[in-house]
Amino acid sequence: MIHSYLSARPAWAEINLDHIAHNVSQFRQQIGPMTQIMAVVKADGYGHGAVKVAEKALQSGASSLAVAFVEEAIDLRMAGIDAPILLLGYTDPAHFPNLVHYKLTPTVFGLDTALKLSALAVENNIIIPLHLKVDTGMGRIGLLPDEASEVAARTTRLPGLKIEGVFTHLAAAEDSDETYTNEQLLLFERIIETCRERGVAFPLVHAANSAAAINHFSAHYNLVRLGLAMYGCYPSSELRNKGINLLTALTFKSRIVLVKKVPAGTAISYGCTFRTDKDSLIATIPVGYADGYSRLLSNKGSVLIRGCRAPVVGTVCMDHLMVDVSHIPAVRLNDEVVLYGRQGENEFTIEEAAEKVGTINYELLCAIGKRVPRYYFQDGKLSSVKDFVRGANCFHG
Predict the structure, then answer these.
(1) How far apart, in whole angstroms, are the C-alpha atoms of residue 299 and residue 270?
(2) CATH assignment of 250-396, given 2.40.30.10, 3.40.50.300, 2.40.37.10, 3.30.1330.20?
(3) Which of 32, 305, 324, 370 has its CA at 20 to 30 Å from residue 137's CA atom?
(4) Each residue of 150-170: pLDDT tens digit?
């Protein structure tokens, strides 16, 4: 039984690893055998737990991994994962020795970085693989179009370096209007062609994030980067009917710790932003904004109890929130609460929560805090638990 391992605070996230496998397999079937899948597990696997997700993704058809920073990659290596890992973001030179030690692949978007990496490679008598990042319209990191071919040509001549790939990031791949994405892809291809004219070959070419993997076949090239979709979430509602059937991997749960009858006119929580308009039954849930349940869901959110929606009433606190359960028959102490996910025939999705607070599903997933243990399920059984408070991976089924 899962609940025999509940932590002192009854709040947890259940991660269905079979759903991760299903989602990767969906793309594996769609994109064909000649295109690689890179599983993006930055931000601790979008809040799901990078190690477990990475292991399952690699078993299910991914051939490499991507994270943002060195520290994230080191965690994967320490867990025994030896697949190629691309660092998507900036790598401080202070971390360059870790690139060598942990066999990581950095992203380069400047000649100065390439020169330093070359010196490191020569010093250690090794070859360092790297990917060049070009900025085709994201305006974040990456070589500008008019400098890309020159940097690529000079980098490929530096000793100790191997340009393994080139990539860009699409800024609006989830939009129904494909104009901007098509402009980015056209510019990307022109940059690649200019580089090739200067003798630079790229074994791997990638531009597709989850949205483009679903919606832009021309962006697949020979590698796609699966992030949000791998976790069962769509980058936008418009992409739900594009032939990819995703299964949500994460359910955020808790339990009722107090049920009390209060009279009409009772103020609930900080600021007295809610008062009961009749005699009511109020349940307290031990989850708050310190756990990643947004304070902006105060008087807006809903949770599921006994298959029914219960509205969040009053201000979400750091450690608790309150819901009105007056309409739910037989509600009682210790009833399971679903904050994001499905219970019975009803569902309160993370997308609905994001819409209510004016953000995106990505942010709410990543916000689920370290006080919330992750319970991993495979084949319908609890297989392991990652409890950040009591110690990682402290249960194995």
Answers:
(1) 12
(2) 2.40.37.10
(3) 32
(4) 999 999 999 999 999 999 999
